[in-house]
Design brief:
This protein is α+β, with helices and mostly antiparallel strands. Among the domains are: about 70 residues; about 120 residues. It has a four-stranded antiparallel beta sheet. A hairpin with a 6-residue loop joins strand 5 and strand 6. Helix 1 packs antiparallel against helix 2 and helix 5 packs antiparallel against helix 6. The longest helix is centred in the N-terminal third of the chain and has 30 residues. The radius of gyration is 35 Å and the shape is elongated.
Length: about 325
């Protein structure tokens, strides 16, 4: 290993010397005949100077070739791509680089497979799924594991309405209206939230679990096209880009606060996060200190501190 490093070091020094000599040659060539060549035979002295520089370049070139030949090749050598190696012999200018690009694509694909295998190992642990695996270990080394099925979606509607009523009383500037789109289904519930005169949101519940969130401007409606009573439109996006971005962030917050063991706390935390948009158009970004960035107010709220950030400024 030390021999390879010494040879590589010598080769780098030789290349550096060659570059220096070539730089001196072009510098002298650009300056032409100078006063330091004297008055007599100035052109002859200038030509002799260029000849010396060319000889020095040739000497350093031979040294580079010798040092490079002493560097051992890697054990794998070049990547064998079969008959595609003949692509490097193309005479057309736009096809000469095809082989090197193909080699780069193979390397990129191998790296993609490696990263995918690592990602699969993490996803196999179920850390990204909206489910909760609780294992109870009995005594002994060969303990059996038992999975507890989450039951937050089987919570009665009355319990959900109790939590919603408590949240509605907590925030005076947030009004909530409860809708039951399917009276026969005792676990489905929709809540329309009006936050001041800033925005309106529809939150769909299955038991105590939030399934879907849609946010629109205060002057936009959530009524369905067929006008059925007790049903709200959960799919039509807002006309304004600001509230479409808040919808994306709200669904991210819904997944962040999800907790199968403490579903009421998850709902309270999400409502607190949503209530932080009461000053949407007056808050300044925590990072850049501006109200607007790319004609957008701070549409991101930190999940822990509720601080306002622009999309490009969020941590």
């Amino acid at each position: 290993m030390n021999v390879e490093l010494d040879a590589l070091n010598e080769a780098l020094k030789a290349v550096s010397s060659l570059r220096s000599c070539v730089g001196n040659f072009f510098l002298s060539l650009s300056q032409g005949v100078r006063s330091e060549h004297g008055e007599d035979h100035r052109e002859t002295k200038y030509i002799l100077e260029l000849q010396d520089l060319v000889a020095e370049i040739s000497s350093n070139m031979r040294k580079v070739e010798q040092t490079c030949s002493s560097i051992p090749l890697p054990p794998d050598g070049q990547i064998n791509l079969g008959n595609t190696a003949h692509l490097a012999h193309e005479t057309t200018q736009d096809r000469q680089a095809l082989y090197s690009e193909l080699v780069g694509s193979y390397k990129w694909t191998d790296k993609l497979h490696e990263i995918s295998n690592i990602t699969f190992g993490f996803l196999a642990q179920n850390v990204m799924k909206r489910s909760y695996n609780s294992y109870l270990n009995s005594s002994g080394m060969n303990a059996k594991r038992r999975r507890l099925t989450p039951s937050c979606h089987n919570v009665p509607i009355s319990s959900v309405e109790t939590v919603i009523t408590a949240i509605d009383r907590q925030y005076q500037d947030m009004n909530m209206n409860v809708y039951r789109p399917h009276p026969s289904n005792c676990h489905n519930l929709q809540i329309q939230v009006s936050l001041g005169r800033i925005l309106r949101a529809v939150i769909s519940f299955r038991g105590m679990m939030i399934e879907w969130v849609k946010v629109k401007a205060y002057n936009e409606e959530f009524q369905t096209d067929n006008g059925q009573l007790g049903q709200l439109d959960l799919w039509t996006n807002s006309r304004h880009h600001v509230f479409r971005k808040i919808t994306e962030n709200a669904n991210a917050a819904m997944l962040h606060f999800y907790s199968p063991t403490l579903p009421d706390l998850a709902v309270r935390s999400f409502m607190t996060w949503l209530h932080s948009f009461r000053s949407l158009f007056t808050d300044t970004c925590r990072r850049c200190g501006n109200h607007l960035l790319c004609a957008m107010p701070p549409t991101w709220r930190d999940f822990r501190t509720l601080e306002a950030f622009h999309e490009d400024c969020k941590p």
